């Protein structure tokens, strides 16, 4: 244990040395897409690059004090048609386990849940502007509700505006605006529609050429209409993020967020909104260059 600590201290000292600092200042080749956790950076692949990504997003704890675990697994093929237009093609799977959670039937299942495609347009590139700016649209068809695990026929159309910036090749900031309308019909339930509005921000510190640590804040509002006319509740999350490129063709990234504020519209004086949102959520991304 002591030897591991000494090695870690030596490594961090090396990363923080003046020579390494000069390297960060003169060469900024850091891929910002995954370094902000649940906030997405503006970077896309080069037209001749292809990548496979496996993203696991997990949610824990809902209202009622019972057991609630839900995980969405995404398998994505990512590439770019031009330097300003990227794309993602994704298969979705859902694993849900509930017991005693308010408003949810006891359930334990794993199933294929849907498909999505996401074009991403670069409006401003950090190669030629002080900040990066991008917009994406992600049509998604679902056959399983990722929250309840029930069979469903739903269609969502999340739209995301992304911005990021860097200082000295060492410090990074990112922000997203999200609007995600959804048309949904669960088995045995009438058709419904709703939307999720979100604003997120994150900071990351690049402590080695291909390693970063950071933190993020997220604020969401759920509605039972496509606009703001029928509010359902809000939630605010805080949590850490990390990114590490383990090899030229392999990276891992992760984030953990804890709900620190929020309230359902019909939830009385609850401190958190565990009706529309979970108390904890986590994401782990593994990417391979093809």
Short description:
By secondary structure, the protein is mostly beta strands.
Question: What labels would you give this structure?
Answer:
290 residues; mainly beta; Porin; 14-stranded antiparallel sheet; globular
| Secondary-structure-derived class | mainly beta
The share of residues in extended strands comes to over 45%
The radius of gyration over CA amounts to 20 Å
The shape is: globular
The N- and C-terminal alpha carbons lie at a distance of: 37 Å
Q: From the coordinates shown, what is the CATH architecture?
A: Beta Barrel
Number of helices: 2
In total, the number of strands is 14
> How would you state the average pLDDT, rounded?
86
Tell me the count of domains: 1
Oligomerization status of the protein chains: single chain
Helix content: under 10%
CATH class identity:
Mainly Beta
Characterise this structure:
The protein has one domain: Beta Barrel (Porin), CATH 2.40.160.40. Strand 11 (211-223) and strand 12 (231-247) form a beta hairpin. The chain is built from two helices and 14 strands, in the order ααββββββββββββββ. It is mainly β and 290 residues long. The radius of gyration is 20 Å and the shape is globular.
């Amino acid at each position: 244990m002591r030897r591991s600590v000494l090695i870690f201290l030596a490594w961090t000292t090396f990363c923080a040395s003046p020579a390494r600092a000069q390297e960060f200042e003169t060469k900024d080749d850091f891929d910002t897409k995954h370094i902000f956790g649940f906030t997405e950076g503006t970077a896309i692949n080069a037209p001749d690059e292809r990548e496979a990504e496996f993203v696991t997003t997990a949610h824990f704890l809902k209202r009622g004090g019972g057991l609630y675990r839900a995980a969405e697994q995404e398998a994505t093929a990512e590439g770019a048609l031009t330097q300003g237009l990227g794309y993602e093609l994704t298969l979705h799977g859902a694993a849900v386990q509930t017991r005693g959670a308010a408003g949810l039937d006891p359930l334990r299942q794993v199933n294929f849940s849907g498909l999505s495609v996401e074009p991403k347009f670069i409006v401003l590139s950090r190669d030629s502007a002080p900040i990066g700016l991008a917009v994406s649209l992600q049509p998604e068809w679902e056959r399983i509700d990722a929250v309840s695990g029930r069979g469903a026929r739903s269609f969502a159309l999340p739209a995301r505006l992304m911005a990021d910036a860097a200082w000295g090749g060492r410090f990074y900031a990112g922000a997203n605006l999200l609007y995600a309308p959804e048309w949904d019909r669960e088995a045995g339930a009438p058709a419904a529609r709703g939307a999720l509005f979100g604003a997120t921000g994150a900071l990351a510190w690049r402590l080695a050429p291909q390693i970063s640590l950071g933190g993020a804040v997220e604020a969401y509002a759920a509605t039972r209409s496509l606009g703001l006319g029928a509010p359902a509740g809000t939630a605010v999350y805080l949590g850490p993020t990390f990114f590490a490129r383990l090899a030229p063709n392999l990276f891992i990234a992760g984030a953990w967020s804890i709900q620190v504020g929020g309230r359902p519209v019909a939830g009385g004086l609850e401190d958190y909104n565990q009706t529309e949102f979970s108390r904890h959520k986590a994401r782990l991304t593994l990417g391979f260059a093809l």
